Structure prediction request, 284 residues.
Amino acid sequence: MGIIQAVIMGIVQGLSEFLPISSSAHLVICSNLYKVFVDGNPAEQTSQEIFLDIMLHLGTLIAVLIYFRKDITEILKALLNGIKTKNYSETNAKTGLYILIGTVFTVLIAFPLHTLAEDLVFRPCSVGILLVITGGLLLGSEIYSKKISEKSNNIDIKTSIIMAIAQGIAALPGFSRSGLTIASGLFCKKDRVSAARYSFLLSIPIILGASMMYPLIKLNLSELAQYNWSAIISGTLTSAIVGYLCIKYFLKFLGKYSLAFFGYYCIIIGVLTFAFFAFISMGL
Prediction:
């Protein structure tokens, strides 16, 4: 694995983690395409590639932490004060509490799916099908949202739990985490920007937890010294920078435009992915 490959993967992760197009699906597609054109056929992920995926997600987590640093600070202060006084009536205290509760629901949904999620890394055709479903949900949420005359910008406990469940289901590559959570927010009659903002905040605990726990459970830490750290660091920094810019401009985009473009994109890419890798698997 070289620096160029890692940087490309970093760009893909930085863009697709926050855009509703499934970062995991695009990493699977890019990784398998690279192996097809370089090695002639898709091969099993090496431990270094798995570690790179984790670091790329850590890079986008850094982007969220930097972009929402003021919001996170205020939420943490309000939450700690709420725990101390047992009063969560303040908006930021509620948000912090909802994120904690939502994280529990995400884990309860995502953990049983982790074996299937790992298996899908080597089944790009299935990932393509899930991308098509993601696109359909995005288009459906926009159609529903347009029928709602009054939308709320306040995230309540019901909406938080529904978005958290959607986030758990999005553990499967092909289901977009941001796509499913934002779409869930729209189905709960929230506006796009508020749903997206909460979606990004909701991702922090789960990405942080996965980045810390996965290496300890799945990786042989004795191999770390043999990894190409120049490539890994380059990819991580790239995903952080691209991710930060993506958050900034995506939120502005949602203030003016719908998710329909991303819905059509997911459907087209999903169909092309299925068709391409189906032909490859058939030896055509």
Q: What stands out?
A: The first helix runs from residue 3 to 16.
